[in-house]
Predict the 3D structure of the following.
Amino acid sequence: MTNNITSIILLKFSYLQNFTFLFFHLMVIIYCGVISGNLLIMVLYVVSKSLRSPMYFFITQLSLCDLLVTTDIVPVLLHTVLAGRTTMTLAGCFIQFSIFATSESSECLLLSVMSYDRYLAICNPLRYHSVMTHRFCVTSAIIIWLIGFTVALIDVLIICNLHFCGPHVIDHFYCDLEPILQLFCSDFSIIHKLLIGLLLIILPFITIVISYVYIAITILKIPSNTGRHKAFSTCSSHLIVVSIFYGTLIIVYMFPKEGRSLILSKVLSLMYTVLTPLLNPIIYTLRNKDFKEAFHKFKADVLSE
């Protein structure tokens, strides 16, 4: 049982021995960028009437996921980089994993709902406003967050009933499920892949792929180049975010880990826990005319006060 141990030790990035302070300051800059970028998106959605559409509502939920996962992981990562290791209570480790699992699970489901939103907007625009109502969006968001929290809770409850083998050291920068499971004797990998892999990675990914197959077919049927470009531009940002997020997530959780170096695993984990939350607001704002206009209007309103 997990009551054999009371603390978990997270180890530093040993291969960054000569670049500790450079890496630390880089992470601080990225963290500040994640916080400011995602908060800006959420503030603009609240104050700008022009952004009150289903897609922008889901983008704010995506920003909330990014804020949660980076705030959950980066402060501990920064302490580990400077101190060489971080000692967490077992409860603290489980809390960190729960927040991480909830936010990442919710992001997977949010991206699939956003692909359905783009499918309706491009392939069935006459039904768009009757289906993608404010009530539908809010209900979807609530269900998504509840599913994410439930999956994290189930994982923690199962782990609490496993037998600890030791040692209580995790060679990783946060309490992810796979490193935690290596501390226990019982094999939880099959349940993990069924629960996490099938429900939260494969099924949402299949939904996204099917949606974009129909979107691509519809776009190719548009006679004018201008019309095709306009239709594609409405979903290109989402497609980029999906490619980056799911690309790293599938490699980390679905591909066999035998033969993969620990360094590569940590770099891939940094991709979807730190780098992707930084890129998401950049991709959605720099490529989006509505966000640019809302930002300039918000800046003008702030400066005029």
